[in-house]
Design brief:
The N and C termini lie close together (6 Å). It is built from three helices and eleven strands. Helices cover 25% and strands 31% of the residues.
Length: 150
């Protein structure tokens, strides 16, 4: 199994037990689902929880556009030194710009999550609700994520 962790905080964000796709060698796209809550107190009620959120103890956080832009800008500064030597920094910045434009243009379609430590310097996971989906698609910028085989 491969666990994908925040390169800064070490928090686990997802694993390869979920459908994972690397898009344009830039962003991981993780398909989630709603499942029965294993920690529910009342066996009569079967509340649903997101499987990615539950498995990796992600914490939902509320962000305004301005907050998101400020946090994302800070993350970009931390991530830039993490680019591999063969990655073209200009091409990467172009991908960042396109991704950011899409997020800001569709901001109300997104939820935001932090890792289990709630490290303010760590990765922000973006969960996009697309169409009539019952669960969001999660997006993680590749350079901010480390893969660990366990």
């Amino acid at each position: 199994m491969i666990i994908y962790k925040d390169a800064i905080s070490g928090d686990e964000f997802f694993s390869d037990v979920f459908p994972v796709e690397l898009v344009d060698d830039f962003v991981y796209k993780v398909t989630s689902d709603m499942v029965d809550d294993e920690n529910a107190d009342d066996p009569e009620v079967e509340p649903k929880v997101n499987n990615v959120v539950q498995a990796h103890q992600l914490n939902k956080t509320e962000l305004t556009k301005r907050n998101f832009q400020t946090i994302f800008k800070g993350l970009l500064k931390k991530w830039k030194p993490l680019l591999s030597e063969d990655e073209d920094a200009r091409a990467w910045q172009g991908k960042v710009g396109n991704f950011l434009k899409d997020v800001l243009g569709n901001f109300s379609d997104f939820d935001f999550y932090m890792g289990s430590s709630m490290d303010p310097d760590g990765v922000i996971a973006l969960a996009r609700w697309e169409g009539a989906a019952v669960a969001p698609i999660f997006y993680f910028i590749k350079v901010g994520i480390e893969a660990e085989k366990v």
